TrEMBL record:
Keyword Lipid metabolism: yes
Function: This protein is a component of the acetyl coenzyme A carboxylase complex; first, biotin carboxylase catalyzes the carboxylation of the carrier protein and then the transcarboxylase transfers the carboxyl group to form malonyl-CoA.
Gene3D superfamilies recorded: 2.40.50.100
Presence of the UniProt keyword DNA repair in the record: no
NCBIfam families in alphabetical order: BCCP
Domain named Lipoyl-binding: residues: 84-160
An annotated GO BP: fatty acid biosynthetic process
InterPro entries noted in UniProt: AcCoA_biotinCC (IPR001249), Biotin_BS (IPR001882), Biotin_Carboxyl_Carrier/Decarb (IPR050709), Biotin_lipoyl (IPR000089), Single_hybrid_motif (IPR011053)
Gene (name only): accB
Gene Ontology terms for molecular function: acetyl-CoA carboxylase activity
Protein name as annotated: Biotin carboxyl carrier protein of acetyl-CoA carboxylase
Length: 160
């Protein structure tokens, strides 16, 4: 594929994400055929906010609250994306916490990681992309479950 078609694909995916938000959809799948052996399959999924009650608790999926309800809840760093130790997704895809099903996860809550260490894999367009730790620290929270869809910029974990 040429650079020009790659840029067109990125623009196409961005347009799909805007369409998803504009029409308040949660998921959108499209397959684009270029030639007999050349196609692009895109699945854009809007992920709900994930909130954990403590480090040991399992994440609970919560839908975005309306403005009046949100005002009643104290805003004590509830948004993991705003946390200074947040590791965010560099792409849209499917997150995997281990190299293969049933194997040991790359990291777990409480684990000490070094800069560049693989935290997880995000599969995008049938390519497995290793997500490295941007800094050394301790994994405080893992905000995605194995096999969950993630979108660009979504918080994946907190490292302090």
């Amino acid at each position: 594929m040429s650079k020009q078609s790659t840029e067109a694909d990125v623009a196409f995916i961005q347009a799909l994400a805007e369409l998803l938000n504009k029409n308040e959809l949660t998921e959108l799948s499209v397959k684009r055929e270029y030639a007999e052996d050349d196609s692009l399959e895109v699945r854009v999924v809007k992920q709900a906010n994930i909130v954990t009650t403590s480090v040991a608790a399992a994440p609970a999926v919560v839908t975005t609250a309306s403005a009046p309800a949100a005002a009643a809840v104290p805003a004590v760093n509830d948004d993991p994306a705003q946390h200074p130790g947040a590791v965010t997704s560099p792409m849209v895809g499917t997150a995997y916490l281990a190299a293969e099903p049933g194997s040991t996860p790359f990291v777990s809550v409480g684990a000490t990681v070094s800069e560049g260490q693989t935290l997880m894999i995000i599969e995008a367009m049938k390519t497995m992309n290793h997500i490295p730790a941007p800094r050394a620290g301790t994994v405080k929270r893992i905000l995605v479950a194995d096999g969950n869809a993630v979108e660009y910029g979504a918080p994946l974990m907190i490292i302090e």
